[in-house]
């Protein structure tokens, strides 16, 4: 067993770790005690839900409140927390508490899991991640309780505050608001400032990445000292949130938001922009969005959050690097520059590989699902990009998918969480490749 462990690459360890978490969650959710019907929910439904929770996606085949008991909901929220932070982060933190020595190999796997740039200081970073997560989630829970306790009472109100705070921070999108009607999410709170601002803040903080936290914590307001990574993430996040909100307001002002108050429209636009980048909640009816708004949502879902965060997608840094590379080529510049820094060729290659891998996987999935069953192309694309971006937003077709289509979505959620490129690399062996290059010959492009 130890020899097998040593032969595994860091990427393979992460892929296998998430797989084991999903299988464990699936087995627990198949128990009759997890289902409100008193009977097993079935292996495929349990597998779909466990994958969605562990991969912090939020797509569901049945309303979370109406389908799962308290036991089932606790299983789901525990998987969300582990999946959001990363099982290696959780495991290493417990090792720190037990005063166990953290080996170099474990530190390397942790570096890959957290997606940090260097292995030095990784244990200190883990402590900050866990403590920071606790602070943000507790603060979010307290604020949400101010709205939930008056409506649901003390016990349920506190439980709802904790559940939704964890779900929002981990960008999971699971909610328990379906008591009166299923799949309503936060549509009843579209003009509630406390609910909207708290949920959005948790999503954004969870989605900017642990590296950015660490940089801000270290340098405070000294922006000039921020790493290039932090500057790119914060700039891209701001542009996507407010640019997306402006477009949602433009597209839906006289349609879905018609009749809303001014602050209701502003909140709904901002919430739609924030949640589309891998959170999965909604305050307006997703299925009723105009085609332009659905297309905008798909783009935001594909981009997602930032590296080393609880969010999915190809990541903000990937898109910024590709846009800067495009700009450099158009202007015929010698290097790809941003914030007075030049980007490495390796960074550009990796960004291209991540973008293409995710896009090709998504297109292949859309073709496969539309070939299997007669579903609208837009709705299928929406579902597919939601899955691979680990977003969880849906136009309502999840429960209509056949067994094969659900398996495709499960695969996409898994790839989206560990990284599509990482999943592909997990099949690569550890053997040393001889650095031999083939003869070069030019071809015409474009």
UniProtKB/TrEMBL annotation:
GO terms for molecular function: potassium:chloride symporter activity. The keyword Disulfide bond does not apply. The keyword Plastid does not apply. Its main location: membrane. It is a multi-pass membrane protein. Keywords: Cell membrane, Ion transport, Membrane, Potassium, Potassium transport, Transmembrane, Transmembrane helix, Transport. It is found in: Cell membrane. The chain crosses the membrane at residues 12-31, 43-62, 74-98, 157-174, 194-213, 233-251, 298-326, 347-372, 403-425. InterPro entries: Cat_transpt (IPR003445), TrkH (IPR004772). GO terms for cellular component: plasma membrane. PANTHER family: KTR SYSTEM POTASSIUM UPTAKE PROTEIN B, TRK SYSTEM POTASSIUM UPTAKE PROTEIN TRKG-RELATED. This is Trk system potassium uptake protein TrkH.
